[in-house]
Structures are given as C-alpha cells and as structure tokens.
Amino acid sequence: MNRCTIVTALGITALLVAGPAMAGKAADDVTVSGAYARAVPPGQPNSAAFMTLTNGSATDHVLLDAESPVAKVVELHTHLKKDGMMQMRRVDSIDLPAGKETRLQPGGYHVMLIGLKQQLMPEQQVAITLVFKDGSRTTVTAPVKKLQMKMMKQGGGMNMQHGQGGMMMK
C-alpha cells in the first residue's frame, strides 16, 4: 500500500469512530416550545404536560424519560385505540426524528405527572426535566393552564372506563 492509501484509510477510520462523538447532544439539538401543564381541581392526583419538541439536527434522538418535582412519578404516555376504546398507555421512549417536530399533545404523546405533591393551578410554573437516550438533559419551565375538555360521542355522552394500565374511553 502506498502512503496516500494508508492516510486515507486512517482518515476514514477516524471519521467512523469519531462520527457518533461528533454528533450533537440531544439536549443541544432539540428545542422545546409551547410547553404547558394541565391545571387540576383540588384532590385530583394526576395531571399531564404537553409541548412541541423540534430536533433541529441531522441526527435522530430519543426522549427516554422525564422528571418533575411536582409529582411522585413522571412517565411518558400515549393514547391508543384498541377494540374501539381509547387507552392511555406508558411508553418506554419517544422517537425524535432528525429535522422533524414531535408534538406532545392531548390525545397523543404526553408527559404524565402521577401522584401530584401539590395542586396545579393556572399561573403557576412547573419544572420538567427531559432525559434523552444519550444521557443529556434539559429542563423546561411550563406554565399551568386550565384546559376545557371537549370530548363527545355520537348520540351524546361519553363512556369512560378505568382498566389495567390506564384510562379507557369509548
């Protein structure tokens, strides 16, 4: 092998090894906008937080967990329709594709705040730390907002059932 081939091979090897290290940390690449937490009436033990996550990089990232001092347990959740019933379920992670926006919104992905340590009232602020698969973290401050739930079923009324693993709506 000549010297040029060896140098080229070493350069390519270095790029392959360093490539992942050169990729940005998720906490730097992902911007959070429109974050808010749902206000709850007195005695309500759970709430949820919503936001838009925009991955501005060319690298896919993964949201792995969330934390907040206002709840005993914080989980990533989604809603799924199964056998004609809407079911809320915990998810292990939320993919954040490169160059895309991922919305955490009512009826879809969201951050579930379980076992609230305080009542969440409008005008308060809630700190939520997002934990990414690469170990990086970012903390957002989400205002608490009162939401008006508009859920309707043909023929009037809504049938809600609580089942194992979450709430179901028919």
Short description:
Keywords: Signal. This protein is mostly beta strands.
Write the layout of secondary structure elements.
Elements: H1 3-22, H2 26-29, E1 30-38, E2 46-55, E3 61-67, E4 71-82, E5 85-90, E6 94-96, E7 101-104, E8 110-116, E9 125-132, E10 137-145, E11 160-163, E12 166-169
What does this structure look like?
This protein has about 170 residues and is mainly beta. It has one domain: PCu(A)C copper chaperone (Immunoglobulin-like, Sandwich), CATH 2.60.40. Helices cover about 15% and strands about 50% of the residues. It has 2 helices and 12 strands. Strands 1, 2, 3, 4, 5, 6, 7, 8, 9, 10, 11 and 12 form a 12-stranded mixed sheet that branches. A hairpin with a 4-residue loop joins β9 and β10. The model is unreliable at about 5-20 and about 150-170 (pLDDT under 50).
Relevant terms:
single chain; 170 residues; mainly beta; Immunoglobulin-like; 2 helices; 12 strands; 14% helix; globular; disordered C terminus
Q: Count structural domains.
A: 1
Task: Identify low-pLDDT runs.
Answer: 4-22, 151-170
Summed over residues and divided by their number, the pLDDT gives a mean of 82
Give a count of the beta strands, DSSP E runs of length 2 or more: 12
What is the top-level CATH class?
Mainly Beta
Q: What's the helix count? A: 2
Distance between the termini: 70 Å
